[in-house]
Amino acid sequence: MDCLVFRAKSEYAKFRKPYTTTSALTFLCIHPPAVKGLVGAVMGIDKIDLYKETSNLKIGIQVLSPVRKDMQTLKLVSMKAERDLFSFPVNAEFLRGPEYRIFVSWLPDKLDELEERLKKQKPVFTPYLGVSEYIAKLSYETRCDTEIINGANSVESIIPSRFINIQHSDYHIFTDNIPVCNNEKREYTGYEKVLFAFREGKACSLIGKLKRDIYGIDGNAVFFFE
Amino acid sequence: MANTREYLLIWDSTMANPNGDMLNDNKPRHDEVTGQLEVSDVRIKRFIRDEWQATGHNVLVRTKKDDAGKVMSCTSLIKEIVTDSGVKENDLPAYLLSEYIDVRLFGAVITKPKYDITGPLQVMWSKSVNPAEIKFMQGNSAYSSGEGKSQSTIWSKYISPYALFKTYAVYNDNTAKRQGIEVSEEDLNEFTKALINGLINYRSTSKNQMPRLLIEVVYKEHRIDGELNYVDVNFDTDKEEVRDISQVTLDLEKLAKYYENKKDSIDTIRIYWHGSVKVENLLDDFEVIDI
Fold first, then answer.
1. FRET partner for A173 with CA separation of 20 to 30 A, picked from A48, A112, A149, B264?
2. First to last CA, chain A
3. One Pfam family, short name please (chain A) (predicted)?
């Protein structure tokens, strides 16, 4: 399987949980629909075409930075009140210093363009992590042919918990219920409880028997969301 | 049309509260783990918008009061613009884009009629390079809070002695083109002018900041680095103890390397710097500007 690898990092990120309104909370890490948005920004795909254009994109995500959530206060302008309330402060959750390794598999000509744009630092739109003021730095890593690892017993990318019989170790396991697919109206239609692990502040492999295909890329065992 | 470009502004805040956190006793926004201070994108854009307003530009996102002295909502502000200009509802976005420089560069969300205009110029949240101390201060005011008091009121606030910030921004030509926004070279000159002068001119008991170095990398062909973090800030003293720009040296060696490597796609690198800052490794190819 043809696969392209790049890194995305920023000082901040916010992947808003849609059911939280003014006081927004963030998911623990970037999720597949957000990766599609990021790839869409690099390729210059319009918002209305994004769903169709990226429907056959396969995505693997590795969380490289330790998860650090924090709250910040924002002032929102009231859209309804005419005279009583002009603006009001809200707490908003965000992630500090996020960094991800993203694996994408797509149509060869699409990957050619994505590769070219990442290598030459030519994203069509300005890439960001969740909200426009958290501009992202993207760096191309590699493009290679990947193959399924037979009898894999560890994984470096995030993976739905139902696909691994996890073996407990001295690592810290992070878990969150993240959106994995959406529809044309940009509503999240499916969630998965995913897992990833850290040891002494560094990303590490999750060990356990895997129940789905895992691909080997550059020394990493990766699960792809389809 | 203006080409894509990136900006890195280095500025400092002395004995002030660069950006208060309203729900946290209005302490300067900060990262509790590293001690670095933070400033939101909208704080920076406010400096710029206020400067634009003061120099005669039309600015849409501003606090305006109606005849009764009440702050107007977005809806009533738009209604007033529509009435005063006689512009038709369908032509409103085009009208706002041509008349208001902040809409042209930063975009706008208008509630009624509903329009989203994505701005081609994005400003990132800023972080201080040094971990900065936050001090609690109290004092006596001249007046009492009401009649019949034997003492005047006591004020209290948080300030930080010294914080040196990096602020990154990017102007994306593709975003402007895709939305049919006409951004001129002059608009972007007005942006840099307002960025520098806005920081200088906005003074209050809580704000006291000075732009020290501005880098503007203008590309020949579209390119976005994503952070433009090519200035090393070296302190003569411990990071925690720095209190003045004279203790700081800004090294442009990495920027010079970036320029050498990407020469084919870079049109110009413009540099503005404040007289009191020490700068190292400034290439002759860089265009030094005065604002």
1. A149
2. 13
3. Cas_Cas5d
Q: Write out the residue range of the structural domain in which residue A174 sits.
A: 2-71+91-225
Cβ distance A125 to B29 less than 8 Å, yes or no, reads: no
Read off the CATH number of the domain in which A182 is found: 3.30.70.2660
B73 chain-A contacts, CB cut-off 8 A: 78-79, 81-83, 86
The DSSP output letter for B125 is P
Q: Is residue A7 part of a domain?
A: yes
| Tens-digit pLDDT string for chain A (226 aa) | 999 999 999 999 999 999 888 788 999 999 999 999 999 999 999 989 999 999 999 999 999 999 999 988 887 776 665 556 667 788 899 999 999 999 999 999 999 999 999 999 999 999 999 999 999 999 999 999 999 998 889 999 999 999 999 988 899 999 999 999 999 888 999 999 999 999 998 999 999 999 999 999 988 999 999 9
Number of domains in chain A: 1
ipTM of the complex, rounded to two decimals: 0.87
Measured between CB atoms, which of B22, B111, B265 is closest to A73? B22
Chain A hits for B222, Cβ within 8 Å: 122, 124
Query: Among candidates A204, A175, A207, A209, which has minimal Cα distance to A192?
Result: A175
Domain presence at residue A80: no
B76 to chain A: closest CA residue = A82
A12, A135, A137, best to mutate vs chain B, most B CBs in 10 Å: A135
Domain assignment present for residue A216? The answer is yes
Q: Using the beta-carbon criterion (under 8 Å), do B22 and A136 form an inter-chain contact? A: no
Q: Are strands B287-288 and B266-273 parallel, antiparallel or unpaired?
A: parallel
Q: Does A121 contact chain B (CB < 8 Å)?
A: yes
**DSSP-H helix ranges across B55-184:** 74-85, 92-99, 101-106, 173-178
Domain-located, residue A155: yes
